[in-house]
Write a structure and sequence with these properties.
This protein is of the alpha+beta class and 269 residues long. It is built from 9 helices and 11 strands.
Length: 269
Amino acid sequence: MSHDAATGFGELRIGNLGVRIAADAAEVEAAQALRYRIFYGEMGAHPDAATAAAERDHDAFDAVADHLLVLDYDLGEGASAVVGTYRLIRRAAAERIGGFYSASEYDIGPLLAQPGNVLELGRSCVDARYRNRAAMQLLWSGIAAYVSKHQIALMFGCASLPGTDLDRLAVPLTYLHAHHLAPPELRPRAIPERYVAMDRLDPATVDPRAALADLPPLVKGYLRLGGFVGEGAVIDSQFNTTDVCVVVKTELVTEKYSRHYERKIGGRD
């Protein structure tokens, strides 16, 4: 697993919380246990027998990824302190395993054709007790530090809307398609056999402010950073979600979060 210190950026701290890259296999396993608790225990994903027995959400991509962790040092050190995670996969890591996770849902050719480093974000989750501004900002600050260290130009990943009922999701899908569709040169497209149209309603009937307010916090976060969505949604029956592919140019991420973070804590380590 890629736990070598060269992948990390040190650690950022706010009070009792810290964010850094997982340093050993036990910490990665703690992230997988947290993912299991939230995706399967809370969000209604359907585990296969091996996943249920292990009580871990894991797949082959975990072995090549860097695992960003939020830790609460009031709970202890290392694995026992993990309260949030995000899976980060760079181009070279994806090549070692034959591609990116998102490629099972989207044609990401337009993104891979971009010059510079690209980063796939996925498997984001935060323990229910930490779903507040501090933990989320720390997670984003960690991504900004990672992006800066590795000179990432473009981030992308599948972001989830809850459930698989397309009628209930017609408003958010229509809103995203009408207002945040990526420009053609940056536009992933759902692979044909999984493609679900996003323009489900007349956009004139959708209130943009209300639709934006109702989006999951993660999707809202991407849009705030000037993110775009690809063409077509994908139903993920295993995870009980409907996915959109999000694309973010990183200059806004590093600017917004590094400045905000330095202001907030005076640049302390």
